[in-house]
Design brief:
Organism: Pseudomonas eucalypticola
Radius of gyration: 25 Å
InterPro entries: DUF3142
Shape: elongated
CATH superfamily of the largest domain: Glycosidases
Number of helices: 9
Number of domains: 2
Distance between the termini: 70 Å
CATH class of the largest domain: Alpha Beta
Number of strands: 20
Pfam families: DUF3142 (PF11340)
Helix content: 25-40%
Structural class: alpha/beta
Keywords: Signal
Protein name: DUF3142 domain-containing protein
């Protein structure tokens, strides 16, 4: 027996080495199509990104807090031509005043009937209902009823919130569905932004202990303009449409592509139990001003380099004493502009624009970012103007 000890030790060592050298898990990518208008830009985005997507999760209908329904009309031919399974997403406002199971089931059944008749490769339905934890038992009861109305191999999925993790009703809720998508992007405060990797890891590990079927995580590829009142309560979130809320403190929050790419690499290297993939909110288009550029999104999903190169220059105008201060991204991928741009020299007048404000100092002018956002590759953004008696050669720009 003594002779076996070294052999057993060697086997144990080899097992550890093999475990540590396992290749990263390939996590498939899904994407939400949340746009209500199927513009040429959206059609192009679907057609050009089908090669990196496993499922399209398409907004099919939405019920507001008063129970009023809005039905979307996707381009069936585009979805069919993309050659990917489609999941119809029904959004039910978390503040729905009256949760009428029978009426909701009838409305969902009508939506599903239309989608089944469209000819698309329908894989199932996802319910997006961000209700309070106190409503989870009623939600679970309705899902059990809804599940009986599905046809064939259609799967039932829901979005899940981190706030549900401490609810005793969570296990019963998750037991009614084939799949869940944990949403870890949310507005908490302007300093944290839309995505906190540390908090996300904590939520993922906790959710894995509750979900016994395959599940996915929803990650952000977008930005929002968020307004807070004096008590630090969120009063408006503008992610797709402008709500034009005035008189409040507002911040532009944007998910950082490099931050999210690093996070997905971490997930692939050490995925939580049961994690079956990633769902991106939302599919970006060339016209989407509150989302990553399509090229940056593809770079994140394909694990390609993101290397923005952003610099500030003075650009002349028709007036020899008037100059524009312009940021330019000559690199690859969206990037965060500099928080401060310094211009040395004597200028009679100047001001900041497009999220920058100007401050005079003893050494010159400081243009400081309030809401820098992301700058797409190949794009320029004016951030200020200057009126200077001396020529441009007398000015020096640092960023």
């Amino acid at each position: 027996m003594l002779r076996l000890v070294p052999q057993l030790a060697l086997i144990a060592l080899l097992t550890v080495v093999q475990a540590c050298s396992r290749p990263p898990v390939v996590l498939p990518n899904d994407a939400y199509i949340w746009q209500r208008q199927w513009t040429p830009a959206l059609v192009s985005a679907v057609q050009s990104n089908a090669d990196i997507i496993t499922h399209w999760r398409v907004l099919a209908a939405q019920a507001d807090a008063n129970g009023q329904w809005q039905i979307t009309a996707p381009d069936w031919a585009v979805l069919t031509g993309a050659g990917r399974p489609v999941i119809a997403v029904v959004r039910i406002d978390g503040q729905l005043a009256h949760f009428d199971e029978k009426l909701l089931s009838q409305q969902v059944a009508s939506v599903m009937q239309t989608w089944r008749a469209s000819g698309i490769p329908l894989a199932g339905i996802e319910i997006d209902h961000d209700c309070a934890t106190a409503r989870l038992p009623a939600y679970a009861h309705w899902l059990a009823t809804l599940r009986t109305t599905l046809h064939g191999n259609e799967r039932l999925s829901i979005t899940a919130l981190p706030t549900w993790l401490n609810s005793a009703a969570l296990d019963s809720l998750l037991g009614q569905v084939d799949e869940a998508v944990l949403q870890v992007h949310a507005v908490q405060n302007p300093r944290v932004g839309l995505f906190d990797p540390k908090a996300a890891c904590t939520w993922l590990d906790a959710f894995a202990a509750h979900m016994h079927n395959p599940w996915r995580v929803a990650l952000p590829a977008y930005g929002s303009r968020v307004a807070w009142d004096r008590d630090a309560r969120v009063v408006s979130i503008e992610s797709e449409r402008s709500m034009l809320v005035t008189g409040m403190e507002a911040h532009e929050l944007m998910a950082d592509p490099q931050n999210l790419q690093d996070f997905t690499r971490q997930l692939s290297a050490d995925p939580p139990k049961g994690l079956a993939g990633i769902v991106w909110f939302r599919l970006p288009t060339e016209q989407d001003t509150r989302a990553w550029s399509p090229s940056t999104w593809r770079a994140v999903l394909t694990n390609s380099p993101i290397d923005p190169v952003i610099s500030a220059q003075l650009r002349g105008t028709g007036d020899v004493q008037l100059f524009d201060l312009v940021l330019t991204n000559t690199g690859v991928g969206d990037g965060l502009p500099p928080t401060t741009v310094k211009v040395s020299g004597r200028c009679a007048a100047a001001d900041g624009i497009n999220g920058y404000f100007m401050e005079r100092t003893a050494d010159g002018l400081l243009f400081q970012a309030r809401e820098p956002g992301l700058l797409r590759p190949g794009r320029q953004r004016p951030i200020g103007w200057l009126r200077c008696e001396q020529g441009k050669e007398s000015l020096h720009v640092e960023s």
